[in-house]
Design goal:
By secondary structure, the protein is α+β, with helices and mostly antiparallel strands. It has helices at residues 2-15, 17-25, 62-72, 85-92, 115-135, 140-157, 164-189, and strands at 33-40, 49-57, 97-103. The model has no long low-confidence stretch (mean pLDDT 88).
Amino acid sequence: MQKIFECLESTVNKSILEKFQNFLKQYPDVDKWFMCSDYCIGDKNKKNDVITFVIYPYILNFDDWKKVINNLQKKDLKHTRLVSDQFCQFLNQGYCFSFSFILQKKNYFDGWKRKEAGDMLIQTYINLTENWQINTPSNAENYKEMNKKLQKLRNESRKKNFNYSLFGRMMTICFLAGYLRYLLLREQKT
Protein backbone atom coordinates (compact mmCIF):
# COMPACT_ATOMS: atom_id res chain seq x y z
CA MET A 1 0.00 0.00 0.00
CA GLN A 2 2.90 2.32 0.70
CA LYS A 3 4.07 2.06 -2.92
CA ILE A 4 0.57 2.88 -4.18
CA PHE A 5 0.31 5.83 -1.79
CA GLU A 6 3.70 7.18 -2.96
CA CYS A 7 2.65 6.84 -6.60
CA LEU A 8 -0.58 8.76 -5.93
CA GLU A 9 1.24 11.47 -4.00
CA SER A 10 3.83 12.00 -6.73
CA THR A 11 1.15 12.15 -9.42
CA VAL A 12 -1.18 14.50 -7.53
CA ASN A 13 1.68 16.78 -6.49
CA LYS A 14 2.76 17.14 -10.12
CA SER A 15 -0.48 17.88 -11.83
CA ILE A 16 -3.58 18.64 -9.86
CA LEU A 17 -2.76 19.75 -6.33
CA GLU A 18 -2.74 23.49 -7.04
CA LYS A 19 -6.08 23.30 -8.87
CA PHE A 20 -7.58 21.34 -5.99
CA GLN A 21 -6.25 23.86 -3.47
CA ASN A 22 -7.81 26.69 -5.49
CA PHE A 23 -11.12 24.84 -5.54
CA LEU A 24 -11.04 24.45 -1.75
CA LYS A 25 -10.26 28.16 -1.29
CA GLN A 26 -13.68 28.95 -2.77
CA TYR A 27 -15.27 27.25 0.26
CA PRO A 28 -13.27 28.33 3.33
CA ASP A 29 -16.20 27.88 5.72
CA VAL A 30 -17.33 24.50 4.42
CA ASP A 31 -16.36 21.64 6.69
CA LYS A 32 -18.71 19.02 5.26
CA TRP A 33 -18.26 17.48 1.82
CA PHE A 34 -19.56 14.56 -0.11
CA MET A 35 -18.17 12.48 -2.90
CA CYS A 36 -19.86 10.67 -5.78
CA SER A 37 -18.17 8.13 -7.98
CA ASP A 38 -18.57 6.31 -11.26
CA TYR A 39 -16.55 3.52 -12.83
CA CYS A 40 -15.76 1.78 -16.05
CA ILE A 41 -14.00 -1.36 -14.89
CA GLY A 42 -13.37 -4.63 -16.68
CA ASP A 43 -14.86 -3.59 -20.00
CA LYS A 44 -12.93 -5.55 -22.62
CA ASN A 45 -13.91 -2.95 -25.24
CA LYS A 46 -12.09 -0.19 -23.35
CA LYS A 47 -8.34 0.33 -23.34
CA ASN A 48 -8.22 1.21 -19.63
CA ASP A 49 -10.29 1.06 -16.49
CA VAL A 50 -11.42 4.47 -15.24
CA ILE A 51 -12.54 5.39 -11.73
CA THR A 52 -13.94 8.90 -11.27
CA PHE A 53 -14.80 10.75 -8.08
CA VAL A 54 -16.54 14.12 -7.86
CA ILE A 55 -16.30 16.15 -4.66
CA TYR A 56 -19.06 18.61 -3.77
CA PRO A 57 -19.17 21.10 -0.90
CA TYR A 58 -22.13 20.51 1.38
CA ILE A 59 -23.76 23.82 0.50
CA LEU A 60 -26.77 21.84 -0.71
CA ASN A 61 -27.90 18.44 0.47
CA PHE A 62 -27.50 15.46 -1.83
CA ASP A 63 -31.07 15.50 -3.17
CA ASP A 64 -30.84 19.21 -3.96
CA TRP A 65 -27.56 18.69 -5.84
CA LYS A 66 -29.23 15.89 -7.80
CA LYS A 67 -32.10 18.21 -8.77
CA VAL A 68 -29.69 20.93 -9.89
CA ILE A 69 -27.67 18.53 -12.04
CA ASN A 70 -30.72 16.72 -13.46
CA ASN A 71 -32.25 20.06 -14.46
CA LEU A 72 -29.06 21.05 -16.25
CA GLN A 73 -28.34 17.71 -17.92
CA LYS A 74 -31.27 15.34 -18.35
CA LYS A 75 -29.27 12.24 -19.36
CA ASP A 76 -26.18 10.64 -17.92
CA LEU A 77 -23.21 12.04 -19.86
CA LYS A 78 -22.13 8.61 -21.06
CA HIS A 79 -25.53 8.23 -22.77
CA THR A 80 -25.64 11.57 -24.52
CA ARG A 81 -24.09 13.17 -27.55
CA LEU A 82 -24.88 16.74 -26.59
CA VAL A 83 -24.01 18.47 -23.33
CA SER A 84 -26.09 21.54 -22.54
CA ASP A 85 -24.44 24.95 -22.37
CA GLN A 86 -25.91 25.42 -18.90
CA PHE A 87 -24.27 22.24 -17.66
CA CYS A 88 -20.90 23.34 -19.07
CA GLN A 89 -21.31 26.72 -17.33
CA PHE A 90 -22.17 24.93 -14.09
CA LEU A 91 -18.99 22.84 -14.30
CA ASN A 92 -16.89 25.90 -15.09
CA GLN A 93 -18.25 27.80 -12.07
CA GLY A 94 -16.40 25.47 -9.71
CA TYR A 95 -19.18 23.86 -7.71
CA CYS A 96 -17.49 20.49 -7.87
CA PHE A 97 -14.07 18.98 -8.41
CA SER A 98 -13.39 15.77 -10.32
CA PHE A 99 -10.61 13.24 -10.02
CA SER A 100 -10.34 10.53 -12.66
CA PHE A 101 -7.95 7.65 -12.23
CA ILE A 102 -7.08 5.91 -15.47
CA LEU A 103 -5.73 2.46 -14.69
CA GLN A 104 -3.82 0.49 -17.25
CA LYS A 105 -4.85 -3.13 -17.59
CA LYS A 106 -1.75 -4.08 -15.56
CA ASN A 107 -1.44 -1.83 -12.51
CA TYR A 108 -0.47 -1.71 -8.83
CA PHE A 109 -3.95 -2.72 -7.73
CA ASP A 110 -4.00 -6.00 -9.67
CA GLY A 111 -2.39 -7.82 -6.78
CA TRP A 112 -5.48 -7.23 -4.65
CA LYS A 113 -7.46 -9.48 -7.01
CA ARG A 114 -5.48 -12.55 -5.91
CA LYS A 115 -6.67 -14.83 -3.12
CA GLU A 116 -3.56 -14.41 -0.97
CA ALA A 117 -3.71 -10.62 -1.10
CA GLY A 118 -7.46 -10.53 -0.48
CA ASP A 119 -7.16 -12.84 2.52
CA MET A 120 -4.29 -10.76 3.90
CA LEU A 121 -6.27 -7.52 3.53
CA ILE A 122 -9.30 -8.95 5.28
CA GLN A 123 -7.17 -10.28 8.15
CA THR A 124 -5.31 -6.98 8.44
CA TYR A 125 -8.60 -5.10 8.85
CA ILE A 126 -9.85 -7.66 11.36
CA ASN A 127 -6.69 -7.14 13.40
CA LEU A 128 -7.02 -3.35 13.15
CA THR A 129 -10.60 -3.34 14.39
CA GLU A 130 -9.64 -5.60 17.30
CA ASN A 131 -6.83 -3.23 18.27
CA TRP A 132 -9.03 -0.17 17.87
CA GLN A 133 -11.58 -1.63 20.29
CA ILE A 134 -8.84 -1.70 22.94
CA ASN A 135 -7.06 1.54 22.01
CA THR A 136 -10.20 3.63 21.48
CA PRO A 137 -12.74 2.41 24.04
CA SER A 138 -15.00 5.41 23.41
CA ASN A 139 -15.75 3.99 19.94
CA ALA A 140 -15.36 0.30 20.78
CA GLU A 141 -18.95 -0.60 19.86
CA ASN A 142 -18.53 0.73 16.32
CA TYR A 143 -15.27 -1.17 15.89
CA LYS A 144 -16.89 -4.31 17.27
CA GLU A 145 -19.62 -4.04 14.61
CA MET A 146 -17.00 -3.48 11.91
CA ASN A 147 -15.12 -6.51 13.17
CA LYS A 148 -18.26 -8.69 12.98
CA LYS A 149 -18.80 -7.65 9.37
CA LEU A 150 -15.17 -8.37 8.54
CA GLN A 151 -15.39 -11.79 10.20
CA LYS A 152 -18.45 -12.49 8.04
CA LEU A 153 -16.53 -11.35 4.95
CA ARG A 154 -13.65 -13.67 5.88
CA ASN A 155 -16.10 -16.57 6.18
CA GLU A 156 -17.56 -15.72 2.77
CA SER A 157 -14.06 -15.54 1.28
CA ARG A 158 -13.48 -19.15 2.32
CA LYS A 159 -16.23 -20.32 0.00
CA LYS A 160 -15.25 -21.65 -3.39
CA ASN A 161 -17.31 -19.13 -5.32
CA PHE A 162 -15.87 -16.01 -3.63
CA ASN A 163 -14.98 -13.48 -6.32
CA TYR A 164 -11.50 -12.18 -5.47
CA SER A 165 -11.38 -10.14 -8.64
CA LEU A 166 -14.50 -8.20 -7.61
CA PHE A 167 -13.15 -7.88 -4.07
CA GLY A 168 -9.89 -6.42 -5.45
CA ARG A 169 -11.84 -3.90 -7.51
CA MET A 170 -13.85 -2.85 -4.46
CA MET A 171 -10.66 -2.47 -2.42
CA THR A 172 -9.15 -0.35 -5.19
CA ILE A 173 -12.16 1.98 -5.20
CA CYS A 174 -12.15 2.17 -1.39
CA PHE A 175 -8.43 2.89 -1.32
CA LEU A 176 -8.74 5.70 -3.88
CA ALA A 177 -11.76 7.17 -2.07
CA GLY A 178 -9.83 7.00 1.20
CA TYR A 179 -6.86 8.70 -0.41
CA LEU A 180 -9.08 11.53 -1.68
CA ARG A 181 -10.61 11.93 1.77
CA TYR A 182 -7.10 12.17 3.22
CA LEU A 183 -6.16 14.72 0.53
CA LEU A 184 -9.28 16.78 1.23
CA LEU A 185 -8.63 16.86 4.97
CA ARG A 186 -4.95 17.63 4.51
CA GLU A 187 -5.44 20.43 2.00
CA GLN A 188 -8.43 21.96 3.73
CA LYS A 189 -6.25 22.61 6.80
CA THR A 190 -3.60 24.50 4.83
